[in-house]
Structures are given as structure tokens and as C-alpha cells.
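Researcher: Final request for today, and then I'll write up notes for the group meeting. The sequence and the SMILES for zinc ion follow.
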Amino acid sequence: MAARRILAGGIAQESHSFNPVLTTRESFAVSEGDAAVARARGTNSTLGGIVDAAAAAGVEVVVPTLFRAQSGGPVADAVFDEVRGRMLDAARRGGFDAVVLPLHGGMLTPTLPDPEGALIRDLRAAVGPSVPITAAFDLHAHVTPETLEHCDLLAAYLTNPHSDQGATGRRAFAAAIAMLDGALDPVLAWAHVPMLTLGNDRTDEEPLKGLHARAAAAVAAGRVRDASIFNAQQFLDVPGLGQVVLAYGDGRSAEAEALALDLAEGLWRQRAKLIGSYPSLDSCLARAVAGTPRPLILGDQGDRVAAGGPGDSTVVLHALLALGTDLPAAVPVTDAEAVEHCRSAGVGATVTVTVGGRHSRVAPPATLTGEVVAAGPGASLTYQGPAEKGQRAAVGPYAVLRAGALRVVLTALPYAYIDPEYFRAMGVEPREQRVVVTRSGYHFTLNYAAIGECITVDTPGMTSYRVAELPFTVARPFYPLDDVAFAPEVRVRRRGG
Ligand SMILES: [Zn+2]
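Model: Predicted protein-zinc ion complex:
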């Protein structure tokens, strides 16, 4: 018997409906073919999990293309069309026993509210009803009826912060192989819950910890084959935004239906507990001025590039400038024009520039005078970790402006600053500051824990959990913006049915 072959690949990015900066092809890392497989091998990524599980099972993995980018504005339609075209060309050429897709699931294009659903629908049309299609998604995905209709088994990460990307890829792969072996006939029971989780949504803390424990117990006991709890990312103004729970039975649905109902009821009942609360910026800066044993590492909740923000909010910068410039602090701001201005003036020059506030409108641009102390066309860095230790990254054009003890780190493109090495790559030592600002909500806390006290601050903006301040229209009604009368309804999907 010839070795089995599976089709994998696609596109992974998390989009923000209210970020007006389109994510274009330059923002994507693109890999394909044998190079994509080799690069994924042994990594804790969804494709890595698929590739490693396939190698162990003697299955060949074909990757026509894989596009990956950090979070940001919607993805240009041309980029998605390119990926879809390559995947469909391969699917139509045939020769695949199954399709296993490593996607994110929370993406948008200007014309498509659910590109992943469209990709899976089109792949289903290309390969026909009998070829298994499974997928691995981030748990922050927006899961739609279209995806569930055309995908035989969808697996979400079970952890937030995420640490089980590889294991999720292995679940999707194993389900496809079990279907080929006649060892799995997936029957899906699922429910949608019209609510958002807003900050108190780590899976290692209650209330999500308890819900995941119930799902895991059902899987371990063999009552269901696989279960997922999707906590949709909060910044998609699309139809049907909300929580989605999935439970897959093998050939039967009763226990899966019971689990899906239990999980949906659990989310809804505990909805108020899934909203976090955060310290104010003023209280954090007052502590920094008074003096803290270690630097305060502040996650600017309102403009988290990690959640799709543009990275040019000046809320924290204005608050620091209001204190004078005696407090040693480092603040990153995305502003390509300001970078150019500083670079053309040159290191050592004194300049007056207006920075930020172009896309983030919760605070106006900030004008300041300072010395250009570093500048360049780009810099590279390697994460010191522990999260993603060893990962290489690059920053594009940058300049560092010093005003008193304040350092404004200007970059042409946005970064989340999840690792201190971002600052060091541009000549700023985080340990020497009293305040360091990052554009991440909690992923940064792992990598700054060794050098400072990490706090996510309650700042306004595009990625704030204060969703009432965002212009949601299409996604409504949902809790907490609307008073929704709701009782979960479980739906069942069978293969070919
Ligand atoms: Zn996520």
C-alpha cells in the first residue's frame, strides 16, 4: 500500500475589525513545500504537531503554502485569494487521503467575515464529501456554522496563554487518520453562546479551568472523542461573534450533546466572572514615581499589537510627559514618518517631532523635543524567553528619541514587545528603566518576569476590554453590551448529513 499523503497549509493571522491598517503581504512569513515541512518539524506550532505526528505514522505531508503574520488589521483580499488559490490547486490535483489545516480562525478580509470558513468550504468542494478534512485553530477563533459544516473535526488549543499548539495539530491529524482507518465516525454536538470573555479568561484559572476539566474528563472517560471551548477574540465585528463549544462523539451524539450543553451553560452562567479588572494607569505611574524595587513593566491594554492594535497609542506617553521627563521610562510608538524624520536628522541630532495617534484616536499625537540616541534601517533579535526562547525576529526602520530620562522607541511597523530583546535590539536596556511599556496583554509577562513587575493597565483604546467604547454593530447583540435573553441550544452535525 502506498504511503498516505495529507494536504496541510493555509493562512494564520488574527484580525481586528477596527484597526484601519490593512495587513498586506509584506507582513507575512511565507513558507512552502519541503522547506515548510522541515521548518515546522519539532516546533510547538500546529503545523509542527501535524508534521511530527505524520512522520511517526509514516504519512507524507504536502504544504502548498503557509502564510503566518502577527495580529493586525484585516488581511488584504489579494493575500487570502493567493493562499486559497494555491491550496485549491493542490486539492484539485488530488492524490490526498485527507486534509489537515493549521489555521488561526480569527481572521478577516475587507470582504469576508469568515475567510477560514470559505477556505474550508472550497476545499470540501474540491476533494468531495468522503475525504476527511480536519483543522487546528487558536482558541480565540471565530467559529462559524460554515466551518463546522465542512470540517469533520475542529480542534482548538486548550490553553491560554497558549502552550499546546503542537498538541492541537496532533489532535487534528489523529482524527483524520482515525477516520481513514475506520476508527472514528465524528458526530459533532455544538452550541453558540452570545457573549465575550474579557480578560479573566486564562485556562489555568477559574472559571475556565473548571470547564476545561469537565471537558477533559469526558474525553478521558471515552464519553466523547474530542472537545473544544472557543473564546472568540474580542475585536471582530462580524455576524455570530461569541463563544462556541464543540464535542465530538464517535458514531453517536448523546454524550456529546450533554457535554456541549453543560459547557455552554457553564460559560453563560459564569459570564460576569469572565470579565477581568485592571489597575489604572495613574495608580501604576504613582507607584513608579514613589519608587518600586523593580521596574514596572506595563502592558498597554488599549493598544495591544498582540491583539491587533496599531501600536501608535499615545495614552501612556502623554501620562509620562505630564510627569515631566525625570522618570526613566521606555515607551514604544509606531510612527513611520517620525522614524524617517529622526533618521534623516541622524544620531546625536536634537529634533522636535510629533508622534503617534494616527490610527489610535483615544489620545492625540504627542509632540516632544529630544535627542536621537539610536536609529537604523532595522535590527534583529533572538527571544531570551522563556516563552518562545530562541525565536528570531526582526524590527524594521527605527529611531530612539531621548527627552530627559524618557526614551521613546519609534518604529515604522508595530511590534508587541513580548520579549525584552526588542528594546535591547534598539539600544534600550529595560532593566535601567523605572517604567517599560509593552503592547501585549499577558503574553509579555512570562518574558519580563525576571526583570520587573508585570502589570496590564486599564488603558482605553482599540484593544481595551472596555468593549462598550468600540463601535460594534454587526456582532450585536452580545453580553456584556446587550441584555440578551438566552438559553443554549445544541445542534448536531453528522458526516454527509
Ligand atoms: Zn489566541
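Model: The chain is about 30% helix and 20% strand. Residues 281-464 form one domain.
Researcher: Thanks, that's everything.
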